[in-house]
Amino acid sequence: MNEQPPSHRELFVGMLQVALSAFGGGLSAWSQRIVVEQRGWLSNEEFLTGLTVARLFPGPNQINMAVYIGAAFRGLSGALVALAGMLLVPFSLLMLLGVAYFSFHTLPAVDRVLAGVVAAAAGMALSMGFKILDQYWKDPVALLLAAATFVAMEFFHLRLVPVVLIAGPLAMAWYWPRGSSSESQP
Amino acid sequence: MSLSLLLTTAMDTLSVPTMAATTASATAAASAQCTPTSLTDLGHLLQVLGTFLGLSLFSLGGGNTLLSEYQHLSVHQFCWLTSSQFADLYALAEAAPGPSSMLVGLLGLGAAWPEGPWWALLSGYGAELAILLPSTLLMVLACLSWNRLKDSPWRIAFERGLGPITLGILFQVGIKILHTADTNAAGVMVSLVVCVLMLRTRLSPLWFMACAGVLGGLGVINR
Questions:
Q1: Which of A160, A161, A184 has the highest number of chain B CBs within 10 A, making it the mutation to test binding with B?
Q2: Residues A175-186: what's their mean pLDDT?
Q3: Dist CA B89 CA A120 (whole Å)
Q4: Looking at the 3D structure of chain B, how many domains does it have?
Q5: Does ipTM surpass 0.85 in this model?
Q6: What are phi and psi of A59, to 5 degrees?
Q7: Tell me: the pLDDT tens digits for B108-139?
Q8: Which domain holds residue A50?
């Protein structure tokens, strides 16, 4: 560990470095390499705690991770600086891409290529549920909750916010830890 | 505004008659179905910001749970985009480097595109700030109080309870995006193959998108 916590400038540059290194993907791995191994800001354990918090709370995981790192050293302003470092370059590039899209998407050639890319992207979206299905496979209540959520949204066209506001507290009540052997389900 | 006009003229002079005509009529049909409420520029911007501020704290499971909601808002409720434009933007956000949740910026951009590129950019940056601000503030609070929160029953119940709900939402989102993509049979096949490859291999999804883009260019996949 460094004796001195990183300054705002260092936080910004560090997160910028993470964002630029991860252009081919693997944002999480790069952020661990740079934050833990190269700069020594966090121990590996602290980094993993950060990932847990980032996954638990609402918001994109990698962006929450940047917020966690910034906040750990410099509070709210550190979090905002780290966030800016993480997003500035990729987001500005995306905005340029968006401007190009809205300028050119009516061209038939562009539209044809996009139709293919969209098919692949739909496959990626379809895989998201299956990716986390494994961890719930042995818990019938979890599967029931997931199925009920799916049916409510897909067939009864309920919107996300009411679904979460109704099903969330019910699920939390069911999974509320009870007694010392809280691992067992009620 | 002037840029798109320029391009329309350029397209006409390049004469790509049939396809351009069908695209134009399709766009006209879509806008006839769904007319955006007329707002001043500032009003429009505030509408975008307010929507995303309100959704920020519902981005469970890394934010992908919001995709259906984004689709509903931008295509059916506010009529910023056509369904296929939404699918295009989702694909762009997945393909571009950086977190895919930056899709919100593209939606903001699309929402204000008719008002000109500068308004659109402002709206895009604003939308992204709006979706990130509440969750960021909550995250900062969480970091500062994590030691107390770590063993709290609220934390445990939240983590265990919201997980299955996230699972259900993600399946619904997957189906929704597949519907929105609305490709031909070959396209659906490609979607299913990509889904399996995403689960079974560790290949970068960029390869899948590149290959599918070629298939699209060749006319194998269309919509």
A1: A160
A2: 63
A3: 13
A4: 1
A5: yes
A6: 115, 160
A7: 999 888 888 998 899 899 999 999 999 999 99
A8: 1-104
